[in-house]
Amino acid sequence: MPYTTSETADAVVLTPPAPPSAAVIWLHGLGADGFDFVPIVDELRLPESLPVRFIFPHATPRPVTINNGFVMRAWYDIKGFGPDRAEDDAGIRESEAVVKQYIEQQIAQGIAADRIIIAGFSQGGAIAFQTALRYGQRLAGVMALSTYLPLRASVA
Length: 156
Description:
Blueprint: E1 4-7, E2 11-15, E3 22-27, H1 40-44, E4 52-57, E5 61-64, E6 70-73, H2 89-108, E7 116-121, H3 123-134, E8 141-145
Parallel strand pairs: 3-4, 3-7, 7-8
Antiparallel strand pairs: 1-2, 2-4, 5-6
């Protein structure tokens, strides 16, 4: 399906030729950007009868502790490894709020919440879980690859 590609400083958006009836918000992993998963869309071979808008946000560049404070695109800081590590609560919730804004934009453009999927890989998968499990309306689904559930002690 031929998509129209638009780019901003915040995201890459692929729009189908027909008015979209569903959306996928797809989050990249640590150090990557929104372009990371764009090539996969053609591989999905979606039928034209299923017009889906794909939104690939770019995480904000920030210092990442485990990478010696190197500034890279990251959904939140990673301060250490293991089950007892300190989590970047503020950064995780900040990125959750960004994804919620993308959801709200899609709803404002006529796509129902139950037709929106949040997808993510690695750190993006953690934010996909964080957002989808805490969003106030039922979403179509969440796809989280090679990841974990952040802030697992709380679903608020």
